[in-house]
Design a protein that fits this description.
Rossmann fold, GMP Synthetase, Chain A, domain 3, globular, Long-chain fatty acid--CoA ligase, AMP-bd_C, transmembrane
Length: 515
């Protein structure tokens, strides 16, 4: 793949020169043009440089969705530093761990998260904190964005190369401590090009960003991609009230809507006003982060006849998009195909490629694969083998190269030597009326080795379901050895920031209850 740019700042500069008066960012009633965006980025870069931030330094972002998040990303790129987006749902100990592990020297934070920041090691470890919103105090270690964006002075662009690390994305840490995936300019620009071609994104598109900008999916496809092509971003700072998302979608004539399954589950059931259905400009819905239920796909297709809902698949270590269904061809249950220099293989435990249709480990290769985990050479060697990224997911490819995810390898249940894939059971349970979502985990059992146990979250307004009828429904669609031996109805399944169910929490809770 050929790359017209080597880093983020280069393409922003090119777009600002070409589209100076075009609106790049919509922030509520405020419109920020490409010219103004570049000016703010340059001022912020000058402020950073004047305060000792330089090439290779790590700048951590503990920011809500905001123009300031975007200014920081491109300012950091201009001075050759490295961006560290941090999950704002984390607590002080978790934030402290990432700041220390990444060796971040600067923290950019929103004042809405002040109580977490103040309790973390940020005030001690970092040279200074730059606050989005009113700075809680004014001294040599605390600055307000309003001050930084009035900074004058020139700073030259340190033109980092394609191979240089641009971003450290921390994995969700489902096992052990989170690890920093080192993503180069090439990794991210490759993924942006891939996504642009697959979804046919152009300068005419407007993207609504309500998912957290710190997440790999939103960061690459929701924030960087629109600006790369000269499009526009509609920024949503808070999901409350969610009706504001629909209002902004309609008023700002949004064409690309990036969401997660829980959003589409709600959208499929919501009674939207006729004028929204009639006048919205959405041409594509994109879903990532977790599997979509077939009933949601069908309901969305019936409801939005002028738009396509495309399911994709990715992971932080792949920058993050691996594959996606296309506008030309989609397959229900599939996460799409890889193209444009990306490869996907299904292999056995000895890395031997398996025949079409056979379930195995999913491995991927291409310019989007991370450089490795920060300061973790052993973990890197275990995850990247001969250039292939071992995703930890299991699935199969059909004869047209469409990928079907079966389950996470670590979630696989082995009962009496037979493999049981929780996702297969979950799909059957989710199809039952009254169930919003389900999660199936494996629990140790003396006789079988492991047994499947199901946790159910009911639709809003539903207080109970007939378990006898549910079990009959499962017996009609599943072999006896796959049937959950226990069923627990809980108020809400534990999820991370992007709606992915945290099965380790369910396992820990069950373990605690059995003690």
């Amino acid at each position: 793949m050929e790359y017209p740019y080597s880093n983020f700042y280069e393409f922003l500069l090119a777009q600002a020169q070409k589209r100076k008066r075009k609106v790049a960012l919509f922030d509520g009633d405020r419109k920020i043009t490409y010219g103004a965006l570049l000016e703010n980025v340059d001022r912020l870069a000058s402020f950073f440089a004047a305060n000792g931030v330089g090439e290779g330094d790590r700048v951590a972002l503990f920011l809500r969705n905001s123009p300031e998040f975007i200014y920081t990303v491109f300012a950091v790129s201009k001075i050759g530093a490295i961006i560290v987006p941090v999950n704002t749902f984390l607590k002080e100990d978790e934030l402290s761990y990432i700041l220390k592990d990444s060796e971040s020297t600067v923290l950019v934070a929103s004042t809405v998260h002040e109580h977490i920041v103040k309790k973390s090691n940020g005030p001690v470890q970092c040279r200074f904190i730059l606050w989005e919103g009113e700075s809680p105090q004014s001294d040599e270690k605390n600055f307000a964005f309003t001050e930084a964006l009035t900074h004058s002075g020139e700073v030259r662009h340190i033109a980092r190369r394609l191979e240089d690390t641009a971003v450290l994305i921390y994995t969700s840490g489902t096992t052990g401590k989170p690890k920093g995936a080192m993503l180069s300019n090439k990794n991210l620009l490759s993924n942006i090009e891939f996504s642009r071609k697959m979804i046919k994104v152009t300068h005419k598109d407007r993207v609504i960003v309500f998912l957290p900008m710190f997440h790999a999916f939103t960061f690459t496809v929701g924030v960087i991609l629109p600006l790369y092509v000269g499009g526009s971003i509609v920024i949503i700072k808070s999901l409350q009230p969610f009706t504001n998302v629909f209002r902004q979608t309609l008023m700002k004539r949004v064409t690309l809507f990036f969401g997660i399954p829980s959003v589409y589950n709600a959208l499929a059931k919501a009674k939207l006003p006729w004028y929204f259905m009639w006048f919205n400009n959405i041409r594509v819905f994109i879903s990532g982060a977790a599997p979509l239920q077939p009933k949601t796909l069908n309901a969305m297709a019936k409801k939005f006849t002028r738009a396509k809902l495309l399911e994709g698949y990715g992971l932080s270590e792949a920058s993050p998009v691996v594959c996606v269904n296309t506008l030309e061809k989609q397959k229900a249950g599939s996460v799409g195909t890889a193209a444009y220099d990306y490869e996907i293989k299904i292999v056995d435990e000895d890395m031997n490629e398996l025949p079409t249709g056979e379930i195995g480990d999913i491995i991927v290769k291409g310019d989007h694969i991370m450089q490795g985990y920060l300061n973790r050479p052993e973990a890197t060697r275990e995850t990247i083998v001969n250039g292939w990224l071992l995703t930890g997911d299991m699935g199969y490819l059909d004869d047209e190269g469409f990928l079907f995810i079966v389950d996470r390898k670590k979630d696989l249940i082995i009962s009496k030597g037979i493999n049981i894939y929780p996702r297969e059971i979950e799909e059957v349970i989710d199809a039952f009326e009254g169930i919003a979502a389900s999660a199936v985990i494996g629990v140790r059992d003396e006789k079988s080795g492991e047994i499947p146990v199901a946790y159910l979250e009911l639709d809003e307004g539903i207080e109970s379901i007939n378990e006898t009828v549910l079990k009959k429904h499962m017996r009609e669609h599943l072999a006896n050895f796959k049937l959950p031996k226990q069923i627990h109805i809980i108020e809400e399944l534990p999820k991370n920031a992007t709606g992915k169910v945290l099965k380790r929490v369910l396992k820990d809770n069950l373990r605690d209850e059995s003690r």
